[in-house]
Amino acid sequence: MHRRHALWILLLCLTPLLAACGHPWKTTRQAVPNPFYGKGRLAVVPVAFLALEVGDVSEADWMAEKDAEQRQSWQEDKAGINEQFTEALMAEAASEDAIVVKAISAADAPFFVRANVTFYEPGVFTGVFNMATHLKATVQITDPAGRVLDEILIEAASPATLFNPSTGGRARDAARQLGKLAGRYVNHRVSGGD
Questions:
Q1: What is the pLDDT of residues 110-123, one digit of tens each?
Q2: pLDDT category of residue 88 using cuts at 50, 70 and 90
Q3: Is 54 exposed, middle or buried (0-12, 13-18, 19+ CB in 10 A)?
Q4: Measured in whole angstroms, how far is the alpha carbon of residue 75 from the centre of its chain?
Q5: In the predicted model, is pLDDT for residue 2 greater than 80?
Q6: Is the separation of the CB atoms in 140 and 150 below 8 Å?
Q7: What CATH number did the domain enclosing 154 receive?
Q8: I want to staple 144 with a disulfide (CB 3.0 to 4.6 A). Which of 58, 106, 139, 176 is the partner?
Q9: How much is the pTM?
Q10: What is the three-class DSSP state of 96?
Q11: Cβ distance 35 to 149 under 8 Å?
């Protein structure tokens, strides 16, 4: 009786750990059969910021409180987020089975990776009170016509530290993490994963 009881206690203790062993993305749509298996050429389009929420307000409401210099800085941060996401995705996905290129035309690849950043928490660094920067994105793999085949939700955070005090630097770091996750997903699907 004690062995069975001990086994149940062990399983209850391990359940949270086992639950955390899944993929670092949430799959919301996945084409069956897998259209990417063995067809590892994809093109990545620039990151979108459609319906972006900044903290608990819309991007438009957040921008309404900013001056011209701050608005320009945010546009530069968005360009940096796109650049870091794209570079990390391309580097992470590069393998024998997959290659991701920058999209220029519909003929670039049979599939396209489209990321939309849906949430941004800028965070804060004061030296006394610090809050990490968070990004959440929806990543879709589509055919050239834009039909969604796969869709995942991913998120990343970059801590506010003495070595990374700026919101723009943290946003770029979080975008790089998102790009790596998206690249891992591409490799997962191209190699036959579900």
A1: 999 999 999 999 99
A2: very high
A3: middle
A4: 19
A5: no
A6: yes
A7: 3.40.50
A8: 106
A9: 0.86
A10: coil
A11: yes
